């Protein structure tokens, strides 16, 4: 409950002071009679009328308290907040070729670092439809754009490399971009965004990257491209089984190369931005930057309805004052 005129409650202070002053003054002026002996008076019990002689003053005082509260206009506040949310549609396109298993990022390798960062990004979004596309030598849609974040996070956790998923290895950038763009072509959102993550250059697929880029541009999709890992000679883990059926990890030399020119054009031609993430910290900063650039538009309208609660206080003030006035002039009338 709130009060429209809270200042009116200050009138309670002088009321209390006046009551104290009247009580002190009345006590001081109490008439006295002299008796030779008070033994007889002690045996006389006070009547009900005597006990209630201060009731009119009490009722009138309570009436004034209720009147002051009514003057302060107590109100019940009912606030309704209406949010108009204008979300965006995002498709995350992740390279799962076996080179993403290179162990130059924490917690384990490039793929696990990407999965961890993507999961944090998804958990921080609200009201945006998010989809997930993976690719190696071919491309697959794991989740079309949806608001079911729990399902997306579950599918992110299930992502594995091309060899583990038994799909064609390689890096089909054009096919992946065309597939991701196809998931956004029918979007009605104010902004359509593709986050494209890879650690290699195009070496597979039936659609070349230039064609994939033109498709994305044609649908008005903004591309944020991310080159993952360091260029240069490195080692890629290879898993096999020994004669006892145990999984054995060995390494083979690998030349890691990111086509920065292509990724840069993917971003610049669509109004996006290109990033290079050579470690897990840089990758997290990239997604933080994208999270800042692509914000959901939320318009908040607040409506407050006030219901007046002073009438009952005013009625009680009137009833108590009339009761005190009638009792003071009739049954409880005091004669000087």
From TrEMBL:
InterPro entries: Aerotolerance_reg_N, UPF0353/GerABKA_families, VWF_A, vWFA_dom_sf. Keywords: Cell membrane, Membrane, Transmembrane, Transmembrane helix. Residues 89-290 form the VWFA domain. The keyword Cell membrane applies. Coiled coil: none annotated. The keyword Membrane applies. The chain crosses the membrane at residues 6-24, 52-72, 313-332. This is VWFA domain-containing protein. The gene is batA.
């Amino acid at each position: 409950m709130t009060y429209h005129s809270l200042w009116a409650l200050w009138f309670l202070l002088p009321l209390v002071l006046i009551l104290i002053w009247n009580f002190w003054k009345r006590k001081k002026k109490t008439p006295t009679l002299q008796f030779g002996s008070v033994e007889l008076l002690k045996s006389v019990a006070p009547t009900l009328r005597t006990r209630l002689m201060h009731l009119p003053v009490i009722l009138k005082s309570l009436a004034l308290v209720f009147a002051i509260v009514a003057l302060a206009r107590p109100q019940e506040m009912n606030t309704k907040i209406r949010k108009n949310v204008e979300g965006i549609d995002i498709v995350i396109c992740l390279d799962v070729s076996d080179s993403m298993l290179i162990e130059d990022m924490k917690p384990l390798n490039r793929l696990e670092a990407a999965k961890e960062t993507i999961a944090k990004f998804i958990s921080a979004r609200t009201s945006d439809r998010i989809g997930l596309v993976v690719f190696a030598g071919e491309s697959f849609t794991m989740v079309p754009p949806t608001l079911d974040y729990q399902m997306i996070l579950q599918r992110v956790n299930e992502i594995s490399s091309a060899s583990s998923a038994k799909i064609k290895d390689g890096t089909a950038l054009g096919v992946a971009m065309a597939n991701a763009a196809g998931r956004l072509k029918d979007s009605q959102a104010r902004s359509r965004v593709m986050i494209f993550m890879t650690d290699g250059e195009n070496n597979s697929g039936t659609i070349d990257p230039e064609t994939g880029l033109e498709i994305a541009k044609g649908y008005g999709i903004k591309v944020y491209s991310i080159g993952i890992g360091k260029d240069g000679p490195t080692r890629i883990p290879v898993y096999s089984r020994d004669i006892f059926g145990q999984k054995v990890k060995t390494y083979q030399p690998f030349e890691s190369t990111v086509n920065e020119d292509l990724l840069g054009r993917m971003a610049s031609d669509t109004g996006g931005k290109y990033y290079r993430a050579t470690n897990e910290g840089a990758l997290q900063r990239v997604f933080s930057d994208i999270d800042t650039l692509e914000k959901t538009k939320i318009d908040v309208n607040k409506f407050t309805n006030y219901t007046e609660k002073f009438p009952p206080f005013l009625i009680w003030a009137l009833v108590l004052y009339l009761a005190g006035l009638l009792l003071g002039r009739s049954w409880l009338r005091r004669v000087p």
